[in-house]
Design brief:
The complex is a heterodimer of chains A (234) and B (115). In chain A, 30% of the residues lie in helices and 15% in strands. With 234 residues, chain A is an alpha+beta fold. In chain A, the strands form two sheets. A five-stranded mixed beta sheet of chain A has the order 2-1-5-3-4, with helices on one face. In chain A, strands 6-7 form a two-stranded antiparallel ribbon. Chain B starts with 11 loop residues before the first helix and ends with a helix. Classes of the chains: A alpha+beta (234), B mainly alpha (115).
């Protein structure tokens, strides 16, 4: 067993006047591999600490937080890779509800604004709308997004304009539907994004790519949207 | 007036494209300038004047000045859009930036063309 040092952002708006960093230690057992394992142990010790978690295997995206200054999922972060004291903060740029829990309303509002569903007004075929393997290939690297918000919450453009800039997660999803050959609303989708704020706040700093725990590349998707817009323009 | 978040100005693409094209113009101009200065005679008032007063160079200089101003306009406007939230003040900053850049473009052209 080894002792792990933590510095955790604490804030309960009902009790605390302002946020503070709390220093805590947790005994690590051999079976504790990921950060979330230890956090769950910490929760047993002090049940006032609040964080979200669900699937604990990098699929639900609930336990996104700022780990040693970088956004990531607690369930995918190897404890051995983390420098101590492990500093945990809520995702930056989003309003804190309590401790490590943030209000994701604005994030999901932007996600919904790009109409994240297939738009096809054609008569539905007998069985299903088919794609060729090549067309399906285009969706790889796009559909895997779990909406954990690690990317958008590390993007300065999203920090300054969360109400107007769609953000990397939303734009990745936008391109997922633009790239889908079964979708018929490409023009409307491009119109929806042709705006100095909604798409063009992205200045390609690639912080989103660095943060994505699923290894996706929103910057590349944003570049492809811009390419399509240019192709449509000229 | 109702307070709603309004987006959809439909001008992002052309500015984004223009910023890239103007960057290329400035890059090419810088290369031409560097090569001309390195390949030409030792730097002096006369050699500088000879280089800058040719018609082709005047054309290129003018294009570079315009490119620089347009490039700066998009960049500086982006900064105001990020950091200046009150609409009235932002409009004022936009207008001042635009007017200053137009003034600079005229002034620079006048200086370089008079050589």
């Amino acid at each position: 067993m080894a002792t792990l040092q933590f510095k955790i952002y604490r804030y309960d708006p009902d009790k605390d006047e302002k946020p503070y960093m709390e220093e805590v230690t947790v005994e690590r057992e051999e079976t504790d591999r990921k950060l979330l394992d230890v956090l769950v142990k910490l929760k047993y010790k002090d049940d006032s600490i609040a964080f979200r978690r669900s699937c604990r295997e990098g699929v639900c995206g609930s336990d996104a937080m700022n780990i040693n200054g970088k956004n990531g999922l607690a369930c995918l972060a190897d404890i051995d890779d983390l420098k101590q004291p492990i500093v945990l903060r809520p995702l930056p740029g989003l309003p804190v509800i309590r401790d490590l829990i943030v209000d994701m309303t604005q994030f999901f509002k932007q996600y919904h604004s790009i109409k994240p569903y297939l738009i096809n007004n054609d008569h539905p075929p007998e069985r299903e709308r088919l794609q060729s393997p090549e067309d399906r290939e285009e969706l790889n690297g796009l559909y895997e997004c779990i909406l954990c918000a690690c990317c958008s919450a590390t993007c300065p453009s999203f920090w300054w304009n969360p109400d107007k800039f769609v953000g990397p997660a939303g734009l990745l999803a936008a391109y997922r539907f633009i790239a889908d050959t079964r979708d018929e609303a490409t023009n409307e989708r491009l119109d929806n994004l042709d705006d100095p704020y909604r798409l063009f706040r992205c200045h390609t700093i690639m912080s989103c790519v660095d943060a994505c725990p699923k290894g996706l590349n929103p910057t590349k998707a944003i570049g492809k949207i811009k390419d399509l817009m240019v192709r449509r323009l000229i | 007036m109702v307070k709603r978040i309004v987006v959809g100005a439909h001008y992002g693409l052309t500015d984004w494209l223009a910023q890239r094209i103007t960057a290329l113009v400035m890059l090419v101009y810088t290369l031409i300038l560097v090569v001309s200065l390195l390949a030409g005679p030792s730097p002096s008032q006369e050699s500088w004047r000879a280089l800058m007063s040719g018609s082709a160079m005047r054309f290129a200089s003018f294009l570079c000045i315009l490119s620089l101003c347009y490039h700066a306009w998009v960049g500086v406007r982006d900064i105001w859009m990020d950091y200046v939230q009150p609409v009235g003040i932002r409009l004022l900053m936009h207008a001042l930036t635009l007017l200053a850049l137009i003034g600079y473009a005229g002034w620079t052209t006048q200086i370089l063309w008079r050589l």
